[in-house]
């Protein structure tokens, strides 16, 4: 793959799950546990799940996931199942079961040494973000960390305005889902799509560049 280079970038905004963190195994386990609960309370039919049917929800905020997955589910059950997923993911992170993509931290360190401002932007909960901050010492790499829960789960392109107020342009957004790439539809930013993550190729079609390994980001900048 021919990889273009970018000039004039000062701030790199990175998604987390599917970009830096490989949350496949943990999310599948959390989803199946929550779905089993819904089956047990007669709110869902028993069924087997393919991994891809589950991981397609990675990258969505909790609110958006349930609105698309089971929009008719009563709020009390949605809340319980959502908390179950969040708690399972949290426990796994705290127990050292979270896994980053190979070369992720080394790439962040290399970019930091080049002088880029690095910003964490994820559709996750605050407690999840903090657990991963502690597990991997993310403060060593990121200048600031933003999660959508702290902004009422508004879209990333709206949160970008807060980032823009804190950090200098030009901006590069790196992620594996349409929620990352669509920031460029609303703001003058460049985008890099991560083909190794959880999105579908068509979600990343408008990205300025595509990478198949997080380490390729160091070649871009």
From TrEMBL:
This is Haloacid dehalogenase-like hydrolase. It holds the Pfam family HAD_2. GO terms for molecular function: phosphoglycolate phosphatase activity. It comes from the Bacteria. InterPro entries: HAD-like_hydrolase_sf, HAD-like_sf, HAD_2, HAD_sf, PGP-like_dom2. One of its GO terms (biological process) is DNA repair. GO terms for cellular component: cytosol.
């Amino acid at each position: 793959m021919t990889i273009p280079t970018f000039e004039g970038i000062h701030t790199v905004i990175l998604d987390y799950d599917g970009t830096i963190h490989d949350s496949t195994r943990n999310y599948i386990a959390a989803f199946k546990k929550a779905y089993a609960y819904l089956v047990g309370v007669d709110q869902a039919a028993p069924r087997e799940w393919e991994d891809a049917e589950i991981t397609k929800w990675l990258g969505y905020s909790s609110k958006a996931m349930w609105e698309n997955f089971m929009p008719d589910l009563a709020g009390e059950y949605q809340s319980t199942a959502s908390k179950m997923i969040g708690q399972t993911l949290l426990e796994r992170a705290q127990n050292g079961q979270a896994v980053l993509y190979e070369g992720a931290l080394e790439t962040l360190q290399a970019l930091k040494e080049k002088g880029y401002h690095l910003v964490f932007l994820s559709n996750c909960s605050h407690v999840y973000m903090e657990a991963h901050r502690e597990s991997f010492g993310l403060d060593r790499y990121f200048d600031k960390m933003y999660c959508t829960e702290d902004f009422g789960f508004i879209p990333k392109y709206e949160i970008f305005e807060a980032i823009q107020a804190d950090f200098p342009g030009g901006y590069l957004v790196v992620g594996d889902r349409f929620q990352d790439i669509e920031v460029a539809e609303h703001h003058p930013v460049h985008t890099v799509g991560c083909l190794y993550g959880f999105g579908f190729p068509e979600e990343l079609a408008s990205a300025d560049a595509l990478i198949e390994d997080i380490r390729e980001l160091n070649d871009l900048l």
